[in-house]
Each structure stands twice: as structure tokens, then as C-alpha cells.
Design a protein that fits this description.
Layout: E1 2-5, H1 13-20, H2 27-48, E2 61-66, E3 71-76, H3 83-91, H4 98-105, H5 109-116, E4 127-135, E5 144-148, E6 153-158, E7 165-172, H6 182-193, E8 200-209, E9 212-221, H7 238-248, E10 257-263, E11 269-275, E12 289-293, E13 296-299, E14 314-318, H8 328-333, H9 335-358, H10 360-380, H11 382-388, E15 394-395, E16 401-402, H12 404-411, E17 422-427, H13 434-442, E18 447-449, H14 455-465, E19 469-473, H15 479-482, H16 494-505, E20 514-521, E21 530-534, H17 536-547, E22 559-566, H18 570-608, H19 618-648, H20 650-662, H21 668-682
Parallel strand pairs: 2-8, 12-14, 17-18, 17-19, 20-22
Antiparallel strand pairs: 1-6, 2-3, 3-7, 4-5, 4-7, 5-6, 8-9, 10-11, 11-14, 12-13, 15-16, 21-22
Helix pairs in contact: 2-6, 9-10, 9-11, 10-11, 16-19, 18-19, 20-21
GO molecular function: ATP binding; ATP hydrolysis activity; ATP-dependent protein folding chaperone; unfolded protein binding
Family: Belongs to the heat shock protein 90 family.
InterPro entries: HATPase_C_sf, Heat_shock_protein_90_CS, Hsp90_fam, Hsp90_N, Ribosomal_Su5_D2-typ_SF
Length: about 675
């Protein structure tokens, strides 16, 4: 028997492997099985070249569990090792400056494994002792057994092994006894090894017999050695892609379509990406793309490795240029990974553009399911956004689709405002904003549907890129002001508006967290008596605030709505006439007194012009102060009478409630009162 010490210049290696790999300690099985697959493939290569006569026809990797001995054994029919090769590949972990390196990377054990090929030593994360029983394919080679208990000491001795290959026998420690459960091992193998290129066997297949599952004599192969992405696209049919998707996501809905990646320059890359049906929101889509290196699973947490918007896709990416055993932070900074990421973005954009050109009708049918993905890409990746302008579609309320260029031609003549800006009208909810949409269409305008969660930031981006374009929601103003052709003219003076506002303000809801700003416009006799609009800027800011999780000043502001009273409507005129009659002579006296005092105040203010404060007589100052108090008191009396009239006038309340009802804002008790009042007014 030969004994010795593993050639590592630090005794800290094993404690670091055991401690700092513990968070991902199930990867030990991936490492050992992957090594076994590599050994098997190397022997197949040699056999293919005629350099060995060893049969590889039935080569496989077998994982065995012995709960009595508390061992997990991984066996292969690969090239095996001689005693000299064990010395070279297992015993000599001799890298320079090991102590300094271990201090630097002790908190990131993946970096240790990835940089120095220590995959085999991950077995010591879970083992008290590890044995290697191996026999080389070389003529005359004898089987040998290597043994180590997790200290730098090891032993090598002669062994018995009939066939070429290697057994790795791991004696599982007490802290890791969870891996002695069949279901646990099966889950790990399914996660990491289900597409390895060499058959991997674990246990026996079962069948239902006599009311229970019983084992058969047939080996249970856990992997598919030739998954769809390893084949040429010409050899696959639509059903093959669909079948593979079901293997990846057994509970998933059918995808829209796929992209088959097959690149050999400037790097090697294969894979299949699927476009899922996305709902009208950004769903949490983690763990959907699976990253492989030569069919060995690396990770399914690809945020930061592929562009953010591509994490909404499903499927597989496989490249030997992706490091197998490194941390996510290393993957994210790796130059090869960045090149791969950029290339995938281009391929996705090219595929979408090709689908659009080849079958626009089919592309339009899929648009509502695709748009969230495309919009997300345009918002988060400038290069994709540039390419996406070739196939991004607007959809209008008629259900017709337009490219950016096509829609501009459609609306240019009719929807250009006085400042020569092109105005895109849109609705975020066709049902709730139906009246506004119809009013806009009656005026000859076209209206888009922008009803998903990304609409607001996307419109902001479009406006930033195109300074001559404006996006305006149909309920942000009365139809006459949505696309201003000339400067707006006020038909009522400030004093007239000030007198009318309290009448309608008095019957606006007070307890729904909304501020109402009353305004007056001539909307014509056939227009609605009162229209409720939402300021475009403030609403967008609130939308952005909510999208960003409320971390935005505007997102916390109460909603502010404009209550636009149509001064030309007969019912509004009826309210105004009733106001003058109901308030009577006393109200007129207050108004006359108020106007007289304002004139007196204005005269005194004019007399002060050009004088220093000390030059103004004290009596005049006192008079001005008294007039200010009197005017304030009269204003208060006037406002109280107008408010009192508004509250008692059923028609005023009815008109405001009608506007609220049209916007879906009248509910509960207020709706019940509206119905009762309607019955009274009809009588």
C-alpha cells in the first residue's frame, strides 16, 4: 500500500470546501456524475479513432445508493485511471500561492472549484471518506483503489475491478444524511443531469402491480441523451418542439412559438427559446430559462446573465463557453457570457422581425400575448428597442394594427395640433372610457388601445425619442382640448367662474380621496352637461409611482380630477337660472356691497402707488385693513350661500352624479341615493 499527502500547500482546503460549499452542497452529485460522463465520452472518442478495443456500446453512468453502508456510488465505463494518473490528477492540487488564494476566495467556494477544477473534491462536502476504485483502459493496467478521509493524507492500493472504468464511493457524513434518501437523490439528478449526453441510471423502473408500485428488472435511466436543442432545426418538427417544451415545463401553457439557436462562430451556442403567453402584467418569471454547459445544468437563475427582458422567455441555452462551476457574479462579468447575451438579443429581435414579415396576419393574432415582452425589451434594452421599431404594433379601438410609420400617416392630417405636434389619442380601458372614446371618434379622431402595465413608461420613452409627438389619454380633457387647433379662449371671466364653482363643488364627493377642480367650458348644447377628466401629466406621474412600488412623490399624491361644467347645456343653464332666483335680493345685496368695497379698496391701493409706506396716512392704512376684513367676510357669506344652494339643489347633485356614474365612480350609498333621486325627478 502506498501512502502520502495530497499536494496542496495549505491544510485549509478541506474545511473550506466543507464549509463554504455548504449552501450549494447538492452540486457534489453533479460534479461527480459530470466527471463520469466526461470519462465515458473520452473513451468513446478513443474507440472511434481505433485507439482502443474496449467496447463502449453499452457505456453508461450508474448512481447507486446503499442506505445500510451509508454510501453513494457513481460508476462509469470510462477511460479509468492508472496509479500514476491518480497521482497526477487527484493528489497534486498544487497551485501557487494557495494560502493567499484561499484567503481571498474562502467566501466564494464556487470560484475555487471553477478556477481550479476541483469538482471531484466537492464530494468531501458530504462525505467522511471517499474512495476511488478505477481501472484504466490502457493495456495491462491494474485496478487501484484510492482512499481519503478528508485530511491531506491518502492511500493507494491494489484493487479488484473486472471492467475498465471508475467507481467513486462516498461515505456520507451525519450532517448530510438527507442525501441517503432516494427521493432526494432522484430530485438532484433530475435537476442537474436530465440531459447529459451519456445514459445515467439510478435504480430500477417501477410499474403498478397488485395495488402498489413494484420495481422491475429494467434500469431507470433518468436522462435524455439527445435533447431537442442538440439536433439540427431541419431534423425537428413542430411537435418535437412542443414535446420538448412539455418536458421542460410539464404544467405550462402551450407557448406561442420558439427560436432555435445554433451558432458556431464567434462562439459555440445552441438552445431553444420559447415565447410564453404573457398576461397583461409582468409576472414573476424566475427560473424559466435553463443555462447549460455541454448539456450539464449550470443554473436556472439567469437574471444579470441574459438581458432582463429575456428572463420572460422559457427554454434552454447551452454553450461550452459558459463556465460550469463559477459564481453568478463571475458569470455576469464573464466576457463570453456578455457576448452570448448580446447575440441572443439580436437573434430574438431578428426572429420576431422575420415572423412579422413572413406572416403579418399571424403575428397580429399573437400581438396581444407578445406585446408585454416586446415593450419590456424596448424599455430595458436600447439595442432591442431600435430593432423592435420594425415590428412594434399599435392597436386601435377598431381592432386594426399599425406600425409606427403606418399610424403616423393615418393620423397626421387630422391629429396635428397648433404647435405642429402629432397627437396620439389612446384609451387605457375601452369599457370604462367608452364615452370619451366615442366623443373623440365622433370628431373624426382615431383612438389607440394602450391598456397594459407598461403603457405609461413606454409612452414616456416614445415622447422622449420624438419631441414632435404627444400621447394623450381620451379622458384627460374635453374633446375640444385634446388636440388644440388654436389657442383656447375663456368664455367666462374669473369672477364668474369664482361665483359658479362653489355651487358644483358643494356636491362633489368628499370621502373618496379625490380632489375635484371645477372648470366651465362651452361644450355645445348636445355635449354632456358635466365631464370628468384626468390631467395627463399628473395621472402619468401617479402611474409611474405605482409601477415603481410607490417610491415616487407623485405616487403618494391624492388623485385630482377636473369637473368640467358645460355652460351651454340646457340643464346647466337651468341650475344657473335657479341659483339667481333662489338666492334672491339678499344675495344680490351681498354682491353689490362686495363690488362696492372692492372698488373702494382698488381706489385706495391706486392712491398708494409711488408712495413710501411712511407717506401713506394712517387713516388710509386702517381703512384698507378694514376693507380687507369686510371683503373677506362678504366673500365668505357669498360662498356659504352658493354652497348651501348647491347642496339643496337636486339637479346640481344629479348632474355631478351622472358624470361620476359615467366614469364608474358612483357606488354604494351614493349610487342608491342617485337612483332614488332619479325617481323623484322623473315624477
Amino acid at each position: 500500500m502506498q501512502k502520502g499527502k495530497i499536494g496542496v500547500s495549505s491544510d485549509n482546503l478541506f474545511p473550506i470546501i466543507k464549509k463554504f460549499l455548504y449552501s450549494d452542497h447538492d452540486i457534489f452529485l453533479r460534479e461527480i456524475v459530470s466527471n463520469a460522463v466526461d470519462a465515458t465520452q473520452k473513451l468513446k472518442t478513443l474507440a472511434g479513432r481505433g485507439e482502443t478495443s474496449v467496447s463502449v456500446e453499452h457505456a453508461k453512468v450508474r448512481v447507486s445508493l446503499d442506505t445500510d453502508k451509508k454510501t453513494i456510488t457513481v460508476s462509469d465505463n470510462g477511460i479509468g485511471m492508472t496509479a500514476d494518473e491518480i497521482e497526477k490528477y487527484i493528489n497534486q492540487i498544487a497551485f501557487s500561492g494557495a494560502n493567499e488564494f484561499l484567503e481571498k476566495y474562502e467566501s466564494d467556494a464556487n470560484a475555487i472549484i471553477g478556477h481550479f477544477g476541483l469538482g471531484f473534491y466537492s464530494s468531501f462536502m458530504v462525505s467522511n471518506k471517499v474512495e476511488i476504485v478505477t481501472k484504466s483502459y490502457k493495456d495491462g493496467a491494474e485496478a487501484v483503489k484510492w482512499s481519503c478521509d478528508g485530511s491531506p493524507e491518502y492511500s493507494i492500493e491494489e484493487a479488484e475491478r473486472a471492467e475498465v472504468g471508475t467507481d467513486i464511493i462516498m461515505y456520507i457524513n451525519e450532517d448530510s444524511k438527507e442525501f441517503l434518501e432516494k427521493e432526494r437523490l432522484s430530485g438532484i439528478l433530475n435537476k442537474y443531469c436530465k440531459f447529459l449526453p451519456v445514459p445515467v441510471v439510478f435504480g430500477k423502473e417501477t410499474e403498478w402491480k397488485d395495488g402498489k408500485q413494484v420495481e422491475t428488472d429494467k434500469d431507470n435511466q433518468i436522462n435524455e441523451t439527445n435533447p431537442a436543442w442538440t439536433k439540427a432545426p431541419v431534423d425537428l418538427k413542430d411537435e418535437d418542439y412542443a414535446s420538448f417544451y412539455r418536458k421542460l415545463y410539464p404544467m405550462g401553457d402551450e407557448p406561442l412559438f420558439n427560436i432555435h439557436l445554433n451558432v458556431d462562430y464567434p462562439f459555440n451556442l445552441t438552445g431553444i427559446l420559447y415565447f410564453p403567453k404573457l398576461k397583461n402584467s409582468i409576472e414573476v418569471q424566475k427560473n424559466k430559462i435553463q443555462l447549460y454547459s455541454n448539456q450539464v445544468f449550470v443554473t436556472d437563475s439567469v437574471e444579470g446573465i441574459v438581458p432582463e427582458f429575456l428572463t420572460l422567455l422559457h427554454g434552454v441555452i447551452d454553450s461550452p463557453d459558459i463556465p460550469l462551476n463559477v459564481s453568478r457574479s463571475y458569470l455576469q462579468s464573464d466576457s463570453n457570457v456578455k457576448k452570448i447575451s448580446s447575440h441572443i438579443t439580436k437573434k430574438v429581435a431578428d426572429r420576431l422581425h422575420q415572423l412579422f414579415k413572413d406572416s403579418r396576419a399571424d403575428f397580429e393574432k399573437k400581438w396581444d400575448d407578445l406585446k408585454i415582452f416586446i415593450e419590456y425589451g424596448m424599455l430595458t434594452d436600447d439595442k432591442f428597442a431600435e430593432r423592435a421599431m420594425n415590428f412594434f404594433l399599435f392597436k386601435n379601438t377598431e381592432g386594426k394594427y399599425f406600425t409606427f410609420e403606418e399610424y403616423e400617416k393615418l393620423i397626421k392630417e387630422n391629429q396635428t395640433n397648433k404647435d405642429n405636434n402629432l397627437v396620439y389619442l389612446y384609451t387605457s380601458n375601452l369599457e370604462e372610457q367608452y364615452t370619451f372614446v366615442q366623443t373623440a371618434k365622433d370628431k373624426g379622431y382615431d383612438v389607440l388601445i394602450m391598456d397594459d402595465v407598461l403603457a405609461t413608461p413606454l409612452l414616456n420613452k416614445f415622447e422622449q425619442q420624438h419631441s414632435d409627438k404627444r400621447f394623450v389619454r381620451v379622458d384627460s380633457d374635453v374633446v375640444e382640448n385634446l388636440i388644440q387647433k388654436e389657442d383656447e379662449k375663456d368664455e367666462l371671466s374669473w369672477d364668474e367662474k369664482e361665483e359658479l364653482s362653489p355651487v358644483f363643488q358643494a356636491v362633489c364627493p368628499e370621502a373618496n380621496g379625490v380632489n375635484y377642480l371645477v372648470d366651465f367650458k362651452n361644450l355645445g348644447e348636445s355635449g354632456q352637461p358635466i365631464v370628468i377628466t384626468r390631467n395627463e401629466f399628473m395621472r402619468r406621474m401617479k402611474d409611474m409611482g405605482q409601477l415603481q412600488g410607490g417610491m415616487n412623490f407623485y405616487g403618494d399624491l391624492p388623485e385630482s380630477l377636473n369637473l368640467v361644467v358645460n355652460t351651454a347645456h340646457p340643464l346647466v343653464q337651468k341650475v344657473l337660472d335657479s341659483k339667481d332666483k333662489k338666492l334672491g335680493k339678499a344675495f344680490e345685496t351681498i354682491k353689490e356691497d362686495l363690488n362696492a368695497k372692492k372698488q373702494e379698496r382698488d381706489a385706495l391701493e391706486k392712491a398708494k402707488e409711488g408712495k413710501k409706506d411712511e407717506e401713506v396716512p394712517a387713516a388710509e392704512k386702517e381703512k384698507l385693513e378694514d376693507l380687507g376684513k369686510s371683503i373677506a367676510e362678504l366673500e365668505k357669506q357669498k360662498r356659504e350661500k352658493l354652497t348651501d344652494f348647491g347642496k339643496k339643489n337636486k339637479l346640481t347633485k344629479q348632474l355631478v352624479d351622472l358624470a361620476l356614474l359615467a366614469n364608474g365612480m358612483l357606488k354604494g350609498e351614493a349610487l342608491d341615493q342617485f337612483v332614488r333621486r332619479s325617481v323623484e325627478l322623473i315624477k
